[in-house]
Amino acid sequence: MAFVMVKCCFDSEIPLPDFVESVIQKCTDPGCCCGCCSALRPRYKRLVDNIFPVNPQDGLVKNNMEKLTFYSLSSPEKLDRIGEYLFQRASRDINRRRNGFVVIAMEAMDQLLVACHAQTLNLFVESFLKMIQKLLESSDPQLQILATQSFVRFANIEEDTPSYHRRYDFFVSKFSSMCHNDNSNIDLRDKIRMAGINGLQGVVRKTVSDDLVENIWEPVHMDKIVPSLLYNMQNSRYHVNEAHTPEPIHEERTDPPTLAETCMRELVGRASFGHIRSVLKPVLRSLSVH
Predict the structure, then answer these.
(1) What is the Cα Rg of the chain in Å?
(2) What is the pLDDT along the chain (290 residues), one digit of tens a residue?
(3) Which of 100, 121, 154 is the last residue of a domain?
(4) Is the N end or the C end of the chain the one with fewer CB atoms within 10 Å?
(5) CA–CA separation, 125 and 121 (whole Å)
(6) Secondary structure of 19-39 in the HEC alphabet?
(7) How far apart are CA 173 and CA 203, in angstroms?
């Protein structure tokens, strides 16, 4: 028979005034036996805390996630606070290497992003992108891939209110670097590279569809995006001297070269007459180097 040790959050050596403040802001310990900790927190924090199971392997608590989603739809003005609180929790879990809880937090933000369509969504998106950036900055490749998948979902969502100030410099740089990953594990390397290519494709889609955001066609961006795609395209089996068996035409291939070629075609297709030069210059520069 197993016994589970429970503890009270007030069992601490921290001086009382400071500790009371920390309880109000940070008490999220599922092993706490003291109900007053929960009562001190705002409702949106309690709803967020309840979506996390005691064991991260159990996954997102779906019933409580539905309650959080309903609350977000009923009180859209709380979306920014919900997003910020989820980001804070995930940041702590990343620092503690509790990746299971990080995955749950990211899944919750994905669901809220899809479910909530309101003018206040912009405020939630800021926390969402901070979360994506935090995961991309981690050293764990799986978290980087997870973050990229969430970013791609976000890129395919049409926002009710365009953002006047949002910038994607970090994402262009990070996704481009992922395209050049040289991990010794070939399978993992290909997954990271494909995630980087998908991320660049998402950035292009998001920025081109919104005239109010930064100009993705500026050389500072194209000089990173285009060479990263070409780098993966040059590794295509059709450009290397090795024997291969032709695949059926109808069979789709999912590898970095094929994905990079698809992304490059889309990039050229989205470029207007005035912007096509921004794509061609890096291509010609790359050809002259190689």
Answers:
(1) 23
(2) 444 444 444 444 444 444 444 444 445 554 454 445 556 789 999 999 999 999 999 999 999 999 999 999 999 889 999 999 999 999 999 999 999 999 999 999 999 998 887 666 777 898 999 999 999 999 999 999 999 999 999 998 877 666 656 788 999 999 999 999 999 999 999 999 999 999 999 999 888 866 544 578 889 999 999 999 999 998 765 444 444 444 444 445 589 999 999 999 999 998 888 888 889 888 888 776 65
(3) 154
(4) N
(5) 6
(6) HHHHHHHHCCCCCECCCHHHH
(7) 11
| AA letter at 142 | Q
Half-sphere exposure at residue 178, Cβ-oriented, CA atoms within 13 angstroms: 32
Q: Which of 200, 155, 167 is nearest to 192 (CA)?
A: 200
- Give the residue numbers spanning the domain of 145: 42-154
For 163, the 3-state DSSP assignment is coil
Tokens of 95: 């620092």
Residue 152 Cα to chain centre, angstroms: 8
d(CA 108, CA 60): 8
DSSP code for 70: H
Give 67's Cβ-side CA count (13 Å radius). 15
Domain boundary among 107, 130, 154: 154
The CATH number for 48's domain is 1.25.40
- CA–CA dist 63, 86 (Å, integer): 18
Task: Name the pTM for this structure.
Answer: 0.80
